[in-house]
Amino acid sequence: MSLRRTHVALIAAAVLAAAAIVVGVGLAPRLAGSGPDAPAQPAADFAPRWAAPAPLPAEDPDRDRPGTSTRPDPAWVSAVAGAAGIPERALAAYAGAALAKHAERPDCALGWNTLAAIGWVESRHGSHGGSSIAADGTVSPPIVGVALDGGSTALIADSDGGTLDGDAEFDRAIGPMQFIPQSWRNWAVDASADGVADPHNIDDAALAAANYLCRATPTLGDEQSWRTGIAAYNGDPAYLDAVATAAAQYSAAAERTGRNGD
């Protein structure tokens, strides 16, 4: 994110010319997952310029837990997760955050597919390095990026005494959406309603990202505005390409299930 407003630090999206893209970020996994349990890899022969917001699912009619983030229909989650290659618990967080944001700011036009694409590029939906998402949304082991020490990254001195990222010298990106500590302080939200705003909880992190994106641009419902919003999160052209590709393919996968917006 822009250094103008204490940033969300992001994972580099790809490798160009055999060198890691340098965008001042924490982790740098390859776009292709590794191992037999890696999430499906969004790929395309060309990168779309943007991804229109996918239709929102219905809300869970049996939702009985409190929380800022709305719970999507579990039947939709099951069908679309299988088609898109997104873990169900991660997709529920992305769709829940998009539903909650739509209720507050329908003009923002934030699609769950955009949040899912960012989650894919940032942390492979909370699975980077062997991590996984528990039923309560907590990602463990915690995903913590490399030190932002000015070497192959931006230089961002410690802002939290190491409380969130374990590093008292430099900041590190944390959680499934890769916030840096100073940015998390600005955008922290307790979407899971467990009493703690936790960057390692995918519900909290997804809604915080949604809040940031809808503040960065008035709407994500057209190409230029969408690109402005994603660029505010990470301005590297390869990052925009990676997010656009994944978001477009997630929307197409949902449409193939016949439950897109169901």
Automatic annotation (TrEMBL):
Domain Transglycosylase SLT: 173-215
Molecular function GO labels: peptidoglycan lytic transglycosylase activity
Coiled-coil annotated residue ranges, if any: none
Database matches in Gene3D superfamilies: 1.10.530.10
InterPro entries the UniProt entry points to: Lysozyme-like_dom_sf (IPR023346), MltB-like (IPR043426), SLT_2 (IPR031304)
Region entry Disordered, spans: 51-75
Protein name in the entry: Membrane-bound lytic murein transglycosylase B
